[in-house]
Specification:
Blueprint (H helix, E strand, L loop, with lengths): L2 E4 L2 E5 L5 E4 L2 E4 L2 E9 L7 H13 L6 E7 L4 H6 L23 H12 L6 E6 L6 E7 L3 H6 L4 E3 L9 H7 L3 E8 L6 H17 L14 E3 L2 E4 L5 E5 L7 E3 L3 E6 L6 E6 L4 E7 L4 E3 L6 E5 L6
Length: 307
């Protein structure tokens, strides 16, 4: 029978007197195996991953667990409470400052604690992200564990040319820890289907590793993208999306959405597909209030994709 221990990592004390803790749940199995880490909530407005972790731990039968699970359901509690991408005190992006700095800004101190108290002890790492408060996203990165990335079960995968500096994955990859980054869900829509997929994906990764018993589900037909472009509006206002099918194909010049002014009623900007053959990786599934520079759309290039 697995044993579960809650052992939060203490970062410091806020001016309010409240301690800033990073939650870690350790679940030890009854047979030898690897240490698998799962994190969510590195960006505070990405609540879908947090829910996936919660429901996974409350619904999945962990009897027969090999090794141990280390689960950090909310990697940035301060930004999670504020529903903010950045940490409210210094407004830094936690996933751009790894490996952190023990004597740096608060966000850098948190990154340092996560590396030393969590990441360094892992053999396998799964980091859950989502689109955030308004956009919805659906793909999985291939970093250094393609079998595990495919096992999560998403149809779209992305093989980047290089790992973005400052991310938690840049640390684990440097430590030769097998790593998977999931981008799933988010936005102003019901998240239940994404949460169910997230639970099933985590379970299938653990079964692929033989960390949990049970049959491994084969992945669906998958496309590996080598190029994804992020389209950010130059104007704020009301974004009216015209493409709302996740994973749907789009053509060169096709209108993805329009930014309009709710004040003057004029059309401010038209956002179009930049590729002759594209696929929707991130979109807004409902009209959204936007500011310049936010995530508008992410489009993958099917012309350069792997079958």
């Amino acid at each position: 029978m697995p044993t579960r221990i809650y052992r939060p990592i203490h970062v410091g004390t806020l001016a309010s007197g409240t301690g800033l803790l990073l939650p870690v749940h350790e679940i030890k199995g009854d047979r030898p195996g690897p240490t698998v880490g799962i994190s969510a909530g590195i960006h505070g407005e990405e609540a879908t991953g947090v829910e996936i972790v919660y429901r996974f731990l409350h619904t999945v039968e962990l009897n027969g667990l090999a090794g141990r699970l280390l689960v950090m359901p909310v990697a940035n509690p301060f930004s999670y409470a504020a529903v903010s991408r950045g940490t409210p005190i210094d407004m830094m992006n936690l996933n751009r400052v790894f490996p952190g700095n023990a004597g740096g800004h608060l966000t850098e101190q948190m990154a340092h604690k996560i590396v030393e108290g969590f990441l360094r002890s892992l053999d396998v790492y799964v980091d859950l992200h989502s689109g955030g408060s308004t956009p919805t996203v659906d793909y999985v990165y291939i970093i250094n564990a393609e079998e595990l990335s495919r096992a999560f079960g998403s149809r779209l995968l992305y093989r980047p040319k290089e790992t973005l500096n400052g991310t938690s994955i840049s640390v684990t990859r440097g430590l030769n820890i097998r790593s998977v980054v999931v981008e799933l869900g988010g936005g102003r829509v019901d998240q239940s289907a994404y949460v169910s997929r997230g639970i099933a994906g985590l379970l299938n990764i653990l079964r692929t590793l033989d960390v949990l018993p049970g049959p491994v589900s084969p992945p669906p037909a998958q496309v590996v993208l080598r190029e994804i472009v992020t389209l950010r509006p130059h104007h704020g206002g009301l974004l009216l999306p015209e493409v709302t099918e996740m994973g749907g194909e789009v053509r060169g010049g096709q209108v993805l959405g329009r930014v309009v002014s709710p004040y003057s009623m004029e059309e401010l900007e038209v956002i179009r597909c930049p590729f002759e053959r594209g696929v929707v990786v991130l979109t807004h599934l409902a009209p959204s209030v936007v500011e310049p520079g936010i995530y508008g759309f992410m489009i993958g290039n099917l012309a350069t994709a792997e079958a």
